[in-house]
Design a protein that fits this description.
alpha+beta; 195 residues; disordered N terminus; eight-stranded mixed barrel; peptidoglycan synthesis; 11 strands; L,D-transpeptidase catalytic domain-like; 4 helices; LD_TPept_cat_dom
Length: 195
């Protein structure tokens, strides 16, 4: 082994030894989830956008969801200064949204009815029944400011290869298995901060 290769290997091992990332077990899924998830396209996951238990970098109260649109991560804050970090796709620059909201509704395999603004931009988009081909994926968390629907969602995707990119019309997209995990952990009125 060449000296430069050995140095790189030792440096990489030392860097990884300092990591405080720990994988999070797969969530419980229903028989329907298993059947429909098998029909959704998959992609090679970039390791940094995986689901990890980490030291909480947000400083927010346990039970809060924080979306870091620049880094493309969603954090769900836990007790003991821990958080679960998920990779996400976010709104592209023209459609990005930031603010504080709450989860006012949760849905499994939701129907998708694109808003009028989206239909005006892309006339080909149309109502899609919930299921494997639906752009909202396996779960949706509906974000409200007070009692007003923001029309933004945290949801699954039928385009998992886009996780880590700024490609949506403002919604926060997650891998389907990740949005199922988050959905199982959160309740209505959970605070969501999109930065």
């Amino acid at each position: 082994m060449r000296l430069s290769s050995l140095f790189f290997l030792v440096a990489t091992m030392a860097a990884l030894a300092g990591c405080t990332y720990k994988g999070v077990p797969e969530p419980q899924v229903s028989a329907r989830d298993t059947e429909w998830l098998a029909q959704v396209p998959t992609s090679q996951e970039e390791p940094r956008y995986g689901r990890y238990l980490i030291e909480d970098p947000t400083g927010e109260a346990p039970g809060t969801i924080i979306v870091d649109t620049k880094q493309r991560f969603l954090y769900y804050v836990l007790d003991n200064k821990k958080a679960i970090r998920y990779g996400v796709a976010v709104g592209d620059e023209a459609y990005g949204w930031t603010g504080t909201s709450r989860i006012a509704r949760k849905a499994e395999w939701p129907d998708w009815n694109p808003p009028a603004e989206m239909k005006a931009r892309w006339p080909h988009v149309q109502f899609t029944k919930g299921g494997p081909g639906n752009p909202l994926g396996a779960r949706a968390l509906y974000l409200y400011e007070g009692n007003r629907d923001t029309l933004y969602r945290i949801h699954g995707t039928n385009e998992p290869e886009k996780i880590g990119l700024a490609v949506s019309s403002g919604c926060i997209r997650m891998r389907n298995i990740d949005v199922i995990d988050l959905y199982n952990r959160v309740s209505l009125n959970t605070k969501v901060i999109v930065r």
